[in-house]
Design brief:
The protein has 369 residues and is α/β, with parallel strands linked by helices. It has two domains: 10-223, TIM Barrel (Alpha-Beta Barrel); 240-366, Beta Barrel (Lyase, Ornithine Decarboxylase, Chain A, domain 1), CATH 2.40.37.10. It has eleven helices and 19 strands. It has helices spanning 11-25, 35-40, 43-53, 63-67, 87-92, 102-115, 136-146, 170-187, 201-206, 342-349, 353-357; strands spanning 5-9, 29-33, 57-60, 76-78, 97-99, 119-126, 134-135, 152-159, 195-197, 217-220, 242-254, 259-260, 266-267, 272-277, 294-297, 300-303, 313-316, 328-332, 365-368. The protein is elongated and about 80 Å long. The relative contact order is 0.14.
């Protein structure tokens, strides 16, 4: 392989993670969320693998992401929003569309009539996320009006959590209660839906109520990759599908007192052998690894010295005299006690695992294994 830095994506582990989720939530179906090009990993191969594993359908954020899955072997749902000028293309390609307000419902209906097609839609209810959707307090009125529109198939209803990562969150439980109250109000007026879902990856781990009746589907994204939110419990037995690798491009013997990298934030306490690793923050290594993180070379941890730069990272080879130019370097991944996880990086950076997975640069070759 002639790439200096590459990200290995283990499709076998991906499939095993999916099946672990599926087993936990059964009999609920599993909706695989592959937003942002499957979190930047490459949606085509991942979608194919999940189709083989038995995913119910694929969820994406917006139309352009859905179009990347045009011709997929399973339904594709836009779970976020559609703009008015996107509706013709969305209806034409038979994507499942979100109803976030009555105006959008009317526009979709009008376009479906024009194309002489039926548009499948699901109602997105805002029970406390404050982002998109119909407020649960207004949902009964909107839904009873929307279902009268022509050329529309309303197959489902769903909502989303902002705090499901917190075990026992009263806010989350209140959202569930409000959603169930709306469903009962609709049911008592003869309105039911085939597909009902509220659980995301965090809720699957922290709130089993979200995959019990009347819920019959769950949505999961980050758990498919074998990662968890930094907080909350971990019910699922998952493994990371990611290993970020690069090469050792130079080995240097530097004197005591030598400053290392931008800002001169590290000075060698003694004469030391250091290695230059061919990956930096442009490739997804967090700047927070500076003087704090490590990489794995020949299975041994090698501490990061000084500031991570855009293209290179300098590491100590003080405990690895056998290192050679060209050696493979694991920046993220590995096995055993020294393994470097997405969660490790997120904690160092003070962020969420989602951001870490989405941060690998364009020159990082994605390699499915």
């Amino acid at each position: 392989m002639n790439n200096r830095v590459w990200l290995e994506i283990d499709l076998k582990i991906l499939k095993n993670n999916f099946r672990s989720i599926q087993k936990t939530v059964r009999p609920c179906g599993v909706i695989s969320i592959l937003k942002a090009n499957a979190y930047g990993l490459g949606v085509s191969e991942i979608a194919r693998t999940l189709a083989d594993a038995g995913t119910s359908w694929i969820g994406v954020a917006e139309l352009n992401e859905a179009l990347m899955l045009k011709g997929a072997r399973m339904p594709v749902q836009i779970i976020g929003s559609v703009l008015p000028d996107e509706i013709p293309e969305a209806v034409k390609n038979k994507f499942i569309l979100p109803i976030t307000d009555l105006e959008i419902a009317k526009l979709i209906s009008k376009e479906a009539v024009r194309q002489k097609k039926k548009a499948e839609c699901q109602f997105l209810i805002d029970t406390g996320m404050g982002r998109l959707g119909i407020l649960d307090s207004e949902a009964f009125d909107v839904i009873t009006r929307a279902i009268k529109l022509p050329n529309m198939i309303f197959s489902g209803i769903y909502s989303h959590f902002p705090m499901a990562y917190m075990t026992g969150s009263e806010y989350t439980l209140n959202q569930v209660s409000r959603f169930l109250k709306l469903l009962e109000q609709l049911r008592s007026n003869g309105i039911t839906f085939e597909k009902i879902h509220m659980a995301n990856s965090d809720a699957i781990n922290n709130f089993p109520v979200t995959y019990k009746p009347p819920f019959n589907y769950v949505r999961t994204g980050i758990n498919l990759h074998g990662s968890f939110d930094s907080q909350g419990q971990r019910v699922l037995n998952l493994k990371s599908i990611l290993t970020l690798k690069t090469r050792l491009v130079s080995i240097r013997d530097l004197p005591a007192g030598q400053s290392i990298s931008y800002g001169c934030t590290y000075k060698l306490p003694k004469r030391m052998k250091v290695g230059i690793v061919s990956a930096g923050y442009a490739d997804g290594l967090p700047l927070a690894l500076s003087n704090r993180g490590y990489v794995l070379i020949r299975g041994k941890p090698c501490p990061v010295l000084g500031r991570v730069t855009m293209d290179y990272t300098i590491v100590s080879l003080d405990q690895l005299p056998e290192a050679r130019r060209g050696d493979e370097v694991i920046c993220l991944g590995g096995t055993g006690a020294s393994a470097i996880t997405v969660e490790n990086w997120a904690q160092l950076k003070g962020t969420h695992p989602y951001e870490i997975i989405c941060s690998f640069g364009s020159r990082v070759k994605r390699v499915c294994i």
